[in-house]
Amino acid sequence: MIDMTVVELSRWQFAATAMYHFIFVPLTLGLSFMMAIMESTYVMTGRDIWRKATLFWGTLFGVNFAMGVATGVVMEFQFGMNWSYYSHYVGDVFGAPLAIEGLMAFFLEATFIGLFFFGWDRLSKVGHLAVTWLVALGANLSALWILVANGWMQNPVGSKFNPDTMRMEVTDFVAVIFNPVAQAKFVHTVSAGYVLGAVFIFSISALFLLQGRHIELAKRSMVVAASFGLASALSVVVLGDESGYVATEHQQMKIAAMEAMYHTEPAPAALTLFAIPSDVPGEPAFQVQLPWVLGLITTRSLDRDLPGITELTEHAATRIQSGLVAYKALQEIRADASNTAARAVFDESWADLGYALLLKKYREDVENATGEEIAMAALDTVPDVWPLFWSFRLMVGIGFFFIAYFGVWFYRASRGWLDTNRPMLWIAVATLPLPWVAIELGWIIAEYGRQPWVVEGVLPTFYAASGLQFWDLVISLTFFVALYTALLVIMVMLMVKIIKAGPKDHLFAATDEHEDADFVVAPQPATPAMKDVRS
Amino acid sequence: MSSIPLDYETLRLIWWALLGILLIGFAVMGGRDLGVGALLPFVARTDAERRVLINVVGPTWEGNQVWLVLGGGAIFAAFPPLYAVSFSGFYLAMIVILLALILRPVGFKFRGKVTDPRWRSTWDWALFIGGFVPSLIFGVAVGNVLLGAPFYLDDTLRTFYSGNFFQLLMPFALLSGLVSLGMIVLQGAAVIAGRTSGILADRARTYGTWAGLATTVLFALGGLWVAFGMDGYVITSVVDTNGAINPLGKTVELVPGGWVSNYALYPWMIIAPVLGFLGLVGGVLGLQARLHLPTLLASSLAIFGIIATAGLSLFPFLLPSSVVPDSSLTLWDASSSHLTLFIMLLATLIFLPLVVVYTAWVFRVMRGTVTTQSLEKNPNAY
After folding, report:
1. Which residues form the domain of B214?
2. What is the pTM of this model?
3. Contact call for B62 and A111, based on CB within 8 A
4. I need a labelling partner for B330 at 20 to 30 A (CA). Which of A160, A238, A259, B313 fits?
């Protein structure tokens, strides 16, 4: 039998290393893009303050990028190390986008990042600008391929189980790439990274204004951040809705859990704004609902029902039964590869094979499973409702907050009111951690909400782990968490030091702070800086 | 899959060769930075000297490390069972490598940001560990591949592993580790000697020469050991090289000198160890003659020859099993599906040449000798 303690520790390790990695990656996504915008403005206007801004944010970007690289290699290797049966079972499909990510995206980003820092005096202005854009392009393409891989775990299209090789194999790679879940996730995730980058630049600039330092650089950075942040915040929410929509076709259970929706909602389903758990399992004590909204978001219609957890669990039980048919046929094929009758049965029922594997938690010989075990396995398909319910609400709340936040700041920037209200600036400084909270919650919803599956409907998480020993995991988890935490603390200290030193370090002092005194934020939206941003 | 223009057997052979090329690519490119890291405390003794060394590789090391990321990705995509068995089987060794590799990006980036000597010395150690440890352990891992790993597969192709970390440290594996470390130190020395001047280049020549000579002796010793001192694995049943993967469908035996049988079967393979020796000797002579590019090319050739020797000796094995030899993984029974291999080949044919072109351009832009003076000019130097 599988050692469930090892499985639990493997899950903790993957979650911890992924969530650490995802502190840095979204900032890389957002900052690289905004640095490219600022440097474009520099090249087009020739104003040195934009070069100075690019260099200053670039310094912080570099420190963050190093952490992203440090935590990133671990991610790729961990699939094989901790999830070896997963690697065998789905590597034929899942490995390809990961490898293409390295080939097409990470190579581009990592090769040019050195030139970004070391190439200022070795390249022409336009040459260096091209390098900066290539770094941003590489970072974003990297996210695309990673999310193609991750999207397949949520919605395993374009592949089929091969009984001769005991694994999932690609049948249609184009379907894997254009997986609607992957595409929606990509836009949602990179937009979230852009919001984070914008908040990062905006908060630190607001601090500069409060301290009365580097005012020109701060104001210009805030104009870029407010416009870019507003567009990105709208995109996160609108295209987050797109993820909600596509998820329903494949992951109704996740939606039902996120909504704490225990019973099928007659169309059009109401959106639960707020609920209090009760002692009766599955029945909230109190809830506030918005009629019709959930039905509209998830089915794009007013007449399709949204299934609840209870109904989905019953459905899972029937899929387990069907999966057992596939499982028995698979055993027969493994015993005698020429058994065409068994192959015909398997071809009919293979899509439910993963459901039979859920029973491996209860017994090795799953073909002899009792009705009670099948019922327990069906219940296992329900993810933990309340963590998902609240994570989702908090994330969405923060998302809407940022639309309002950047909307207000965009307006204030256009009126020339960036530094007129100190409490507002303090709020901007205090906002800094919020996007990270939303982003990490987003991962919890996506990955924790996928449980008990590592690949939706195909492979249960517990069945995918390596057969490691308890102490292997204790050692690796301890060292990773200790080293990552130490490095994170050091990184934050370094960033604080860089921010305190500010961009006026002699290293950046090609020009004086006030050289661009002709820059006045006019009371119309069309300030010079914003024209630059748009062009 | 009649629509795929290359047959399965050919694709498997191509991917086996590509895997070798990617791993050699990492050892040659990433070996520059690992080697410089391993030499850092010895060649550079003052802070100013260390800064020079770090900035020799600083602008390009990140791109070089992607060869490792890609190598890992290619094993996952092209040989999933190999990825599954080796990464989980060598778990604690992989953890040690990863912890050491984690120290590198932060070492490069954080070191120069604070002037306190203790801070700098801490990151110097981090960079040294980040260079020394992976260079050694990767070699130890290859040695263990030649020895066979204690794993077997059940009928569902799940891996069971019965070894532990300390069993990896067999004398032959340690010898492989030293060969790997030596060739990477030679590579690092060739880089330093070519890109610095004065005392740094002189010290690099001295260390590089000793590393090159030691590696020559150890590589020869390893060859004798493999030929006369240990058993190798051979397949004793007929294998369908075009069929679906089936790692349990063959018989394998352990025979004395098994790892040199390929050289009798395919005499051209002898070119790999010959190139290894020529590269090592050429690297040493190049260092002594104060030649830059030829030294680097020779030491890269040494890396190519040494890794190719290991790969060709193992052929067609990727990872033999010491406890249930029939479970051994070969390129015929541990590959991806026909379609995946073909798609990955297309992606590689499109993108790998691009990578080579832009990497060459970046190296060209960053060419030239690094000195203490040249660092003063660049505010972004490490």
Report:
1. 14-367
2. 0.91
3. yes
4. A160
